[in-house]
Amino acid sequence: MNQVSEMLWHRLMGLMPGELKKSELGWLFSPHRHLSLLARRRAALIVNRVRLFAFLFAVLTPLWSIIDFVVFPFPLWGQLAFMRFAASAAFASLLVYYRSNGDLFNAYRAMALLFAIPTVFYVASHSLLAHYQLTGMSAAIGAGYAFLPFVLLGGLAVFPLAVAESFVVASPILICHAVSGYLRWAAMDWPAFTGAFWLLVLITGVAALAGICQLAFMIALVRQAIRDPLTNAFSRSSGMEILDLHFTMAERADAPFAVAFLDLDHFKRINDGYGHEAGDRALVTMTERVTQHMRHGDVLARWGGEEFLLIMPGAGLEQARTAIERLRGGGFGERPEGGPVTASIGIAERRADHVGDWKRLVELADQRMYAAKQGGRDRVVGGEPAAVLAPSHPTMPAIATTAPV
Ligand SMILES: Nc1nc2c(ncn2[C@@H]2O[C@H](COP(=O)(O)OP(=O)(O)OP(=O)(O)O)[C@@H](O)[C@H]2O)c(=O)[nH]1
């Protein structure tokens, strides 16, 4: 049984958008493990789509008043026109005033507002139309008002949403439809009700599929944009974005936040003695080793040629030192001429070093890395003399303390 379900699962996964890595497939179903950079870009995209939608609806909603004017009696067309202009003004306000701040909840709120406007319009217009006995052409146009829930669910397709998000957004509409059916139980037109409900479920499914196809494409694009192509570590520009994000969060919560600047020792000798490709291989191995031993949630960014920055949200100086010792214990790879690849490392921490912005934090870690070089390489320099740690490999000479920078 297990084998059958596993085979089915693999077959099904084979149909998923091919741009994705296996580890990213789960991201299509739920957003809770998305990278912060992906979440930020997605939040911005969702808000932009909301505003685009708002623009379209702000223009189109009042235009229909012309049809209402032609087919409906007074005062119905006047009341509907008033509601249409109010809805249009609400859409226009959303377009003009709503901006992304990079926060996903801010984006969810934008979607909720976008969907709330037509929902209120739908409820109000529906109860208004129920007071009139419409016939002929006006009855047909009046029936058109009932299509709004279908339009709303179809509109979901323009957002890059995970499956869980699509269903959370769609569920109020589906639930309302089911509840309205329950309330009219006795006089229910069952075939019409079931047909409409089935259509709503179908549109939700198609919209959810469109959402994950967009999301998959976005995950692949963001991955390419934020990763260094050689080592697969984060690129410098995305590292800066992550620093900015986490530093601000740490400041707000008055939480610790550490970075370590790593520079490989005598790297030029590898290039000079064994060629650029051997150098590249050493960089890739080093990144793999660090990624393997670093804590989940920490971020490794390639800052320059053989310089890396390890970003450690939530880590104080002590924890950062422990983390770095773990990395050094795991090693950074082997040099082609024999012996271990080593690194000079500088650590800085927001609170312990009384630093007010991330640029200064990185600068401090860089200066300490330089102090580690001056002190004889293969060592760590933190905020005070006690932070100078012994070389990780007995083959390298241990050189005594370096003054704090
Ligand atoms: N193979 C390879 N080499 C690179 C890459 N980026 C930078 N480098 C090389 O890295 C070397 C860095 O050399 P240096 O800055 O002199 O430093 P080092 O030899 O490591 O010496 P110390 O840092 O003082 O221990 C240079 O030879 C660069 O050409 C890369 O992507 N691939």
Structure in words:
- The chain is an alpha+beta fold and 405 residues long.
- The protein has two domains: 2-226, no CATH class; 236-387, Reverse transcriptase/Diguanylate cyclase domain (Alpha-Beta Plaits), CATH 3.30.70.270.
- 61% of the residues lie in helices and 7% in strands.
- The chain contains 14 helices and five strands.
- It has a five-stranded mixed β-sheet with strand order 2-3-1-4-5, sandwiched between helices.
- Strand 2 (299-304) and strand 3 (307-313) form a beta hairpin.
- The chain binds guanosine-5'-triphosphate.
- Guanosine-5'-triphosphate binds at residues 230, 263-268, 271, 276, 279-280, 283, 305-306, 373, 377.
List keywords for this structure.
single chain, 405 residues, alpha+beta, Alpha-Beta Plaits, 2 domains, five-stranded mixed sheet, 5 strands, 61% helix, elongated, binds guanosine-5'-triphosphate
- Bound ligands, named by name, code or SMILES: guanosine-5'-triphosphate
Structural class: alpha+beta
SSE pattern: HHHHHHHHHHEHHEEHEHE
Mean pLDDT, rounded to whole units?
88
Taking the sheet with the most strands, its summary is:
5 strands, mixed
Q: Low-confidence segments, ≥5 residues, pLDDT <50?
A: 385-390, 393-405
Give the total of beta strands. Answer: 5
Number of H- or I-type helical stretches: 14
Query: Could you give the order of strands across the largest sheet?
Result: 2-3-1-4-5
Q: Give the fraction of residues assigned to helices.
A: 55-70%
Count of the domains: 2
Q: Please report which band the strand proportion falls in: under 5%, 5-15%, 15-25%, 25-35%, 35-45% or over 45%.
A: 5-15%
Radius of gyration: 29 Å
Alpha-carbon distance between the two ends: 63 Å
Task: Categorize the overall geometry.
Answer: elongated
